């Protein structure tokens, strides 16, 4: 009798904690410009709030919860880019950040995204991108860093031209008096706008090219393309258009130190989810692409391939992460 009772309460426990929670009322992600002033302020305040909560990652250099995310990305950088799980790893990462903003900082909205294609000019030298709302000093993320000349060519390994910044951001909510990075060392948030990269890499025609791919493997490859600047790739747009050579967002390891990272990767994820939505039956259950970076003839990821984001959340399989409204993730986009 007692045993039966114990067993049945165990079963109940399993139902309560072990079974998947259905995704009801997923937060609806919107483009930054679709948020009203109050929603924008609430988001920016929640980001600041994360920097006031103690780190849990156990990683060196991480002091607060904002740093935790940056440090986890940094620790995994060599194994999460130019691989089949690139887009899904970053999906999990952004969704976990969204969850932290909501659950630890009382944010009631969803993770916004930045549709940079709206800002991309066909005139590659145009600096109109600097004027767009996302960089607003009051209702946005602030603008460029102060101009810093590069004297040592080793600091610019790709010999990128057209840099316009490189120093600490000069206005907005993330200037050094209001916001400091701790990883890998204490310092200010830097930006280094390069108009030609932003304008050419963020074109809607490139997004269309990525979204016209017939399967996950080709989608993933079109999304990242090659690690060079001779061919554009949409993932590089925000990173090198806004981060340039010396900016935080342009640093492959430390890029999540720029709060804009999450709006840039939010948009990359929207592109993935919209593509999946064209044929959900297939695209909730299809992955591919190399396990090792750019190893295109080697072993590929499969649905049960597991990714981890350190202490930020539990491990998840790629199949779980394919579903934005499944047992691990729960959000949607206003476009889908
Ligand atoms: C993003 O912007 C481009 C260019 O204006 C537009 O064609 C596209 O529909 C936009 N996408 C979304 C989801 O707003
Ligand atoms: C950049 O320029 C240096 C010096 O001219 C050259 O050695 C190097 O190969 C160039 N790098 C790239 C990626 O073009
Ligand atoms: C991995 O996928 C690529 C592209 O589909 C394919 O060419 C390659 O043979 C696959 N690797 C293995 C080990 O099957
Ligand atoms: Cu990354």
From TrEMBL:
Transmembrane region(s): none
Species name: Aspergillus lucknowensis
Entry keywords, A to Z: Copper, Metal-binding, Signal
Domain Tyrosinase copper-binding positions: 258-269
One Pfam short name: Tyrosinase
Signal sequence residues: 1-18
Protein name stated in the entry: Tyrosinase copper-binding domain-containing protein
Database matches in InterPro entries: Di-copper_centre_dom_sf, Tyrosinase/Hemocyanin, Tyrosinase_Cu-bd
